[in-house]
Automatic annotation (TrEMBL):
UniProt keywords, alphabetically: Hydrolase
Location of the Amidohydrolase domain: 47-519
EC primary class: hydrolase
SUPFAM superfamilies: Composite domain of metallo-dependent hydrolases, Metallo-dependent hydrolases
Alphabetical list of Gene3D superfamilies matching this protein: Metal-dependent hydrolases
GO molecular-function terms, A-Z: N-acyl-D-glutamate deacylase activity
Organism whose genome encodes this protein: Streptomyces rimosus subsp. rimosus
InterPro entries, sorted: Amidohydro_3, Metal-dep_hydrolase_composite, Metal_Hydrolase, Metallo-dep_Hydrolases_sf
EC number: 3.5.1.82
Cross-referenced CDD domains: D-aminoacylase
Superkingdom of the source species: Bacteria
Record protein name field: N-acyl-D-glutamate deacylase
């Protein structure tokens, strides 16, 4: 054998009680599991790892990641590797970098600069989904990438490519083109379709259009992953909309960062769970992901009303420069509640600037818009407008609008999985980018007992692997891939905080992908074992 982990507590990802065993790895797979109660010789190996005091689990699967360019930019990618993440699902929220043409690529790069940077350091040699996945597989001189990656076809990018930024229904020809693009992406290896239905231009799609795209996804055995139309006012109706259209399409549904935010939804998680339970009982195929924090994270430009974003980034900037139009935008945001802000009037003291592209604006980072405005003796909208213009739509934000009781209630649900929604850009990113998985294990399992350790690991491994239809990942089983984490259940914890968001976790000793040590004795190695994980045919 290549490696054997001796006398380790195995938490196998199924949710069943843990047990003690020797686990032998060979050729990138789990070759033998010898429980302490088994008779016969213990497996030997070229390398023996002492598992005493440690737990061994499958590698964690980040069901909602924004590492689309980070995987090509940073070979270490410690934000995820150090957490024990061995697979990320990217292409989220309906906006990513394939499929594109030259025009669309320029537009999407500008739109999501706050998520991934402007990409000036990236060679965008791809245009199709297949070419992007191939680029990931051959990253860093052909060695690969830090962790594995699966891709969702981004519906907003598809709409951008087929009909631009117009707020209207697609023509039959345009809908046929979008169906074709989605089918091609799935044929080339994507695992499903994502949407960002509070982001333009994806939010301009009506239910009939989305249903038709989901029919394509269903035909290929993929799943639909929407950031739905509201997490604030009308959140329950927005969830019900997604359940209804996917059931009509016969498509599996995975609800992205499923939570109930803003004051209107305090304590209302049980209503969401009742809605999901009713659908599940009647045969719906539904899963969801969440991060174990209350604040959200997005871009400042996403808060604008959708009509202000029609036409794309340059059109947005032109509207912001015009005083009369900017005043209309302010009124909608502060008085009526913009659809970009989930139908809730914006509260500037909950909007914290977490990153900017222009270093000259760095003094805003770590302050709320309201606080920055007070320091300058101006109205909050004046500050926000200037930031959007000077940073060319680049600012990212933390939005402090969540409720702890909702977070805990939703994470207990049997179809729950973990997703960091981690944006890695900015001087002060959300700590979930570096801390989601150890925070689940340390805070919510060990300290609070919201989940048992075995249940928690299942939510982070076996259940997401089942959603992704992965036949040989997500469980500690003989014959499965050796994507594994060894951690100390007594000390594992998120190091990242809101004040120090890039601090690495503690208590994670080893991380292996295909049996190769990505993290060894708590330190990142130079191994690049990550590859794309592509759609499994039904």
């Amino acid at each position: 054998m290549d490696t054997v982990v001796r006398d380790v507590r195995v938490i196998d990802g199924s949710g069943t009680p843990s047990y003690r065993a020797d686990v032998a790895l060979d050729g990138g797979r789990i070759a033998e599991i010898r429980r302490e109660t088994d008779s016969g010789p213990r497996p030997g190996a070229a390398r023996v790892v002492d598992g005493a005091g440690l737990a061994l689990s499958p590698g964690f699967i980040d069901m909602h990641a924004h590492s689309d360019l980070a995987l090509l930019r940073d070979p270490a990618h410690e934000a995820k590797a150090a957490q024990g993440v061995t697979l990320e699902v990217i292409g989220q929220d309906g906006l990513s970098y394939a499929p594109v043409d030259d025009r669309t690529l320029a537009e999407v790069r500008a739109q999501i600069t706050g998520w991934n940077g402007d990409g000036s350091d990236i060679d965008f040699s791809w245009r199709t989904v297949g070419e992007y996945l191939d680029r990931l597989d051959h990253g860093f001189g052909g060695q690969g990438i830090a962790v594995n990656a699966a891709y969702l076809v981004p519906q907003g990018t598809v709409r951008m490519l087929a009909l631009g930024w117009e707020d209207r229904a697609a023509t039959p020809g345009e809908l046929a083109r979008m169906r074709q693009l989605v089918a091609e992406g799935l044929e080339q290896g994507a695992v499903g379709l994502s949407s960002g239905l509070t982001y333009t231009p994806g939010m301009y799609a009506d239910d009939a259009e989305l249903t038709e795209l989901c029919r394509v996804v269903a035909r290929y055995g993929g799943y639909y992953c929407p950031h739905h139309r509201s997490y604030g006012a009308g959140a329950l109706e927005a969830y019900a909309e997604m359940v209804g259209l996917t059931r009509q399409a016969g498509c599996a549904l995975h609800l992205a960062h499923a939570t109930m935010n803003f004051g209107v939804n305090k304590g209302r998680a049980p209503e969401l769970l009742a809605l999901l339970d009713e659908a599940l009982a009647s045969g719906a195929d539904i899963t969801l992901d969440t991060y174990p924090y209350t604040p959200g994270c997005t871009t400042l430009v996403a808060m604008l009303p959708s009509w202000a974003s029609e036409g794309g980034p340059e059109a947005i900037l032109a509207r912001l420069r015009d005083d009369a139009t900017a005043e209309r935008i302010r009124h909608v945001m502060e008085v009526e509640g913009a659809d970009g802000c989930h139908g809730v009037p914006i509260e500037w003291d909950t909007i914290e600037i977490s990153g900017v592209s222009d270093p000259a604006l760095a003094d805003h980072v770590g302050r709320t818009v309201a606080a920055s405005a007070r320091e300058r003796g101006e109205a909050p909208w004046t500050t926000a407008r200037r930031l959007l213009l000077q940073d060319r739509l680049g600012p990212t934000i933390l939005q402090h609008v969540g409720h702890e009781e909702n977070v805990r209630a939703i994470m207990r649900h049997p179809v729950h999985t973990g997703g960091s929604d981690g944006i890695l850009q900015g001087a002060k990113p959300h700590p979930r980018a570096y801390g989601t998985f150890p925070k689940y294990l340390g805070t919510y399992a060990r300290e609070l007992g919201v989940l048992s350790l075995e249940e928690c690991v299942a939510h982070l491994t076996g259940r997401p692997a089942a959603r992704l239809r992965l036949p040989d990942r997500g469980l500690v089983r003989e014959g499965y891939r050796a994507d594994l984490v060894l951690f100390d259940p007594d000390t594992v914890a998120a190091g990242s905080t809101f004040d120090a968001p890039r601090t690495l976790p503690t208590g994670i000793a080893h991380v292996l992908i295909d049996g190769r040590f990505v993290i060894e004795d708590g330190r990142r190695t130079d191994v690049l074992a990550g590859r794309t994980v592509q759609r499994t045919r039904p």
